[in-house]
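Methods: holo model generation. Sequences were used as deposited, without trimming of termini or removal of tags, and paired with ligand SMILES retrieved from the corresponding compound records. Each pair was processed once, and we did not select among multiple samples. The sequence and adenosine monophosphate SMILES for this entry were:
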Amino acid sequence: MNILVCISQVPDTATKIVVGADGKSINPQGVKFILNPYDEFAIEEGLRLREAHGGTVTTLTVGGDSAKEILRTALAMGSDNAVLVKDDVRADSFVVASSIADAARELSPDVIIFGRQSIDFDSFQIPSMVAEMLDLPNVSMVSKLSIDGSNVSCERDIEGGKEIVSVSLPCVLSAQKGLNDPRYPKLPDIMKAKQKPITERAAVAAAPQVEVLGMVLPSQNRLGVVVGDSDADLQEIVRRLHEEAKMI
Amino acid sequence: MNAILIVLEPQGTSIKRTSLEAITAARGIAGGAPMHGVIINGTSEQINAAGAYGLANVLNVSLASFANGTVAAAIATAATTVGADVVLFGANATGKDIAPRVAVRLGAGLLADCVGLSNDGGRLIATRPVYAGKATVQVTSTTPSGVVTLRPNVFTAKQDQTVSVSVQDLSSVANPPARTSVVNDIIKNDGVMDVAEADMVVSGGRGMKGPEHFNLVEDLAKALGAAVGASRAVVDAGWRPHREQVGQTGKTVSPNLYVACGISGAVQHLAGMSSSKYIVAINKDKDAPIFKIADYGIVGDVFEVLPRLTAMVANVTGR
Ligand SMILES: Cc1cc2nc3c(=O)[nH]c(=O)nc-3n(C[C@H](O)[C@H](O)[C@H](O)COP(=O)(O)OP(=O)(O)OC[C@H]3O[C@@H](n4cnc5c(N)ncnc54)[C@H](O)[C@@H]3O)c2cc1C
Ligand SMILES: Nc1ncnc2c1ncn2[C@@H]1O[C@H](COP(=O)(O)O)[C@@H](O)[C@H]1O
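and the model returned the structure below.
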């Protein structure tokens, strides 16, 4: 099985966000960048499919040179190949999806696995976009997966329950938390991964479709009423919820 | 703006609240542009439900398959049919899955998970949270048309003058080739309200000390008519199912009221609930970060506070 896993590099959620000089993006200084947490599930699932069905796992990211770091993590976890599609700007999801689709046409994988969403812009759109561009079926938010021959059976989380969806290979999947428990790379594998080659390819020239006009840090205009735990305090909160917030 | 197409998701004999919210949001930006709905295999009851929200025209597409690729193709066809340059979805599991496909088909920019929408002299401008809610961006599409998904519960669904709905069948146009994705079954979580769709949520964290104490959280939820949520700490500990998890690796919720019980307010938790309208926090540590975003904070022990608070709330709601 030819497995393609797409991963992205994102700021660690615990990092403080500061708006950059352009007023449209973050100031990357001092920001710690990590492998998108959902993409760990995608890598792990790719490795498990290889263990069960044979084949190779290729991990791909669209990004700048610094994104090699997450490719090294994927290699250390056990990925066979790593591809960096060089794009320092990553203008929008459409541009990134176009580059992924372009690479996929050449690699012709049986299955492309994504994370559910990247935690920077939380766009939740690249997997479905790539599926549409490649005219493939897709299942998003997969929390359980089994592949038998070319039959793919998935459980997918929806509001208030789960959907059982089947598609056939080739297909696009996106991983939800709970799909698996990602392995931790071992130290010797981390060392070996440093020596492994990373294939670079050029991004496609696609025009972005979304423009960021401005970025601000939201002001939390909260009422900030803090009380103790006496009966009178609680009664006051209930009164405010009833009369002020009209919530009950 | 030429025309707006609103994707209507059926639910029972009506349509989902997220769709009603999208109709309301559309009214806010239409500025005279015609509004159309599109529904897949809609019944007359479902279609008429949109009339109470002021939507007078609905395209009804009959499809043999609900495959996401097929549905996306049908919605794109509907958009072209009515000349829509704005397509609105609710940002729920279905909307998030299908909207990107529609955007690619229409060559339209996708503005995802928006919490604000405005019409700036014909240009659509959306506001959306990014970086786990730590920043907000204003975005616009640079293409002639735009596809938008709206975060559930943010745009309040408001009824309008009821109009009678005229229905146009799209059966002859649609039924594009299916991309062989088949929904075999849907397993419903029995009788529980989903946190992502609920109007009010009461969540418990590690401060609840164990799964056996979550009845305190459930009781308050019941008195309010709210859904039960949880922090990751308690989901990871196996006290609560993952479907209840609120936060970055769980669900994003924007209820009118969010009550956090024994939750510290880690940034990853805030990522999932900071766009709630009113936030109540109960925590025994007065310095817990959750108080920074609370409208009403109660410094106290959940075991002392919850039973009394529940009784007082039940007194008002009669539940
Ligand atoms: C990549 C990543 C993703 C994550 N995703 C999520 C996510 O989706 N959702 C999420 O919630 N977390 C997430 N987390 C975890 C998050 O960082 C926190 O660890 C978690 O939210 C803590 O849960 P908690 O508030 O229940 O527990 P704690 O942080 O342990 O807080 C317990 C609180 O209860 C209070 N307390 C204790 N006893 C009582 C009492 N008797 N009465 C009143 N108060 C009491 C304490 O003062 C404390 O503030 C994520 C972390 C990472 C790294
Ligand atoms: N720059 C990128 N390169 C490769 N894959 C990406 C990139 N950005 C996002 N992805 C993949 O697409 C998924 C969804 O991202 P998004 O649509 O941005 O929320 C992520 O979990 C990754 O698997």
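The first strand of chain A starts at residue 2 and ends at 6.
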